[in-house]
Amino acid sequence: MTAITDMPETPRAARRPQPGNPVLHWLRKNLFSSIPNGIITVLLLALLAKGIFSFVQWGIANAVWLTPTGDSSACRAARGLGACWAIIPEKYRFILFGTYPFDEQWRPALSVVLFIALYYLSTRRALWRRELVYLWIGALALISLLMWGGVLGLSFVSQDRWGGLPVTLILATFGLAFGFPLGILVALGRRSKLPAIRSLSVLYVELIRGVPLVSLLFMASVMFPLFMPAGFNIDKLLRAQIAIILFAGAYLAEVIRGGLQAVPRGQYEAADALGLSYWRKHRLIILPQAIRHVIPPLVNTFIAFFKDTSLVLIIGIFDLLTTAKTAIIDPAWQQFSVEVYIFVAAIYFVFCFAMSRYSRSLEARTTPK
Q: Which CATH superfamily is domain 87-366 in?
């Protein structure tokens, strides 16, 4: 047998690292690898530069930041040339807190701070202990006390006066906090060997996923009270919260079921060989691996539901987006709605971007090297 000796060797120069600036090498490889790619890159950069320049001129250089007289005369004078950011300090209280009593708005403001603190503490892996659950229970009880009042010298404020950012955080937080364990139970039910449990789980998922959230909110607000006994009434915000929990549970169940199917069969067999019970097997071995597999779609679902809370406007609940729309009903400020929507979009972006960045870091830490 003759050895193959005529294979061309790779030149040593080609195997060496490319000299020069790594940034220029990246640009040449990704943006200017060919003439068509270079032309498209230049055109897109030109459009981006023009858009940024126009926004800087409108939103910063020619913008009206404050109105000395407290009205919109200065903004109307600059109409067409610059933004009217003066509407934000004029209307921010109503946008953030709705019709909550003006002198008591420190209470929803403190509730928002408590929510953000809970989110931050929950991202610290060193605090993932049973005490964190107790902290959540205590903080949520304190938030309820602040929002409702009626004790400890705080005046009572009915839920009809709630609005703005606290309502958005309440709906999103409770919806995901209760929807996630519901989704786990339904996902396990869909994989159960008991026909009755499996059928009920499939029926629930297909029924909830088969209708839009708007329909569920409408049913919870209008139709549900018709089936209740006379004199029995559930608060409108609570009915909307239950609809969001059910909707979130159905979607999260399908995401978690995908993670359960990704766990190798050998993990189930190993857990059975150790003599673990059904619930200990899933709690200690199966579910941690399943959730690790589906961190990106889980966070994508969380972000979608955080934004979907704005749909409660159809049943008359004043969330953040609804209070923003109501704030610009004032004829003096009605023509400056773009600035208000940019302000609200920035708030949504901060929360959604924080969730996205945390999910990436969590996925990087939990993925085995």
A: MetI-like (1.10.3720.10)
